[in-house]
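S.,

Sequence below, as promised.
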Amino acid sequence: MHIGFNKPTLTGNESKYVLEAMSSSKLSGDGIFNARCQSWFEKELNCDKALLTPSCTQALEMAAILVNIQPGDEVIMPSFTFVSTANAFVMRGAKIVFVDIRPDTMNIDESLIELAINSKTKAIVVVHYAGIACEMDTIVEISNKYNLFLIEDAAQAISSTYKGKPLGTFGHIASYSFHETKNVTSGGEGGLIIINDPSLSHRAEIIREKGTNRSQFFRGMVDKYSWIDIGSSYLASELQASYLFGQLECIDQITSSRLETWNFYSKSFSDLANKERIQINEKPSHIKQNGHIFYIKCKNLEERTKFISYMKDKDIQCAFHYIPLHSSHCGIKHSIFNGEDKFTTMESERLVRLPLWYGMTDNIRHRIVESVIEFFKTN
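The prediction came back faster than expected:
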């Protein structure tokens, strides 16, 4: 039996809610299921505003507009991330300033951020890789010290916390992803923009509605709506929202299942890690993670290539992750790397992700673990 890298989450109520949305009089967005999901997030996160978007990419694009990124502004972030993290700001004319990551969490090295700040710096964007929190106390302090916008790319971090506080609630703005590879999905794509700064909430609604005050109109706050700002079509459809709501009802169950697999991997590979044959995910004691990704680190790129090929021969799909953005064609054009690339490239070339999804059975877990151990024993 083939074991794929990912299997989109399905809990049971999604089809019921999708059919309910299909039979409603409103499919285009901001119907009953959008409202339910947004209320759920606003309650869970205690944020000022949560707005569903068609993708996390579009949530980040909204963030770039909201903080008024202009040509020549600089935005600090890690290079080990998905292209959307940088693209959203480059599209507004920003220059991206990459800094190195920490090898223990693969997150931005908070001790290097301040060194990259200058008079052109407009924002800091952090990425909570694998649902493991960045060191937010230090980063929030730096943001406040230099009066910089702080944006959390929390695409992988739903249900994760830092010192008891949900990820996505530290920055002025944050984003979640509901892509099919994430813990919860809205039917393939989907995202959320989280507004923690109340002064940005009103404009966020306008930008999301193509630059109009349409939301105010439907609330009866204005007698007609018109074009009053820049914006685009950033509304999630009711089909996306209905699918997502079916998963939000079961989010504790989903997280528990993923953590069961994550913990099984961690325990099973502890001997290999103790013998320094591999490195495995590290989980700082002051964070709670969501079991989004379990990765191991091979000795180098050559060994990782052999490992992925070996697992493929076993009919088990494993995957590496990001190629650092600063080494890409577009990254060279639109960014600089501040300081030394001590860990970003080296660690990204060693990292490989193991299959992990909701409802993974013991038989599948054992087969994966046995194959991994066999490779490192025989190579």
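The chain has a mean pLDDT of 96.

Coffee later?
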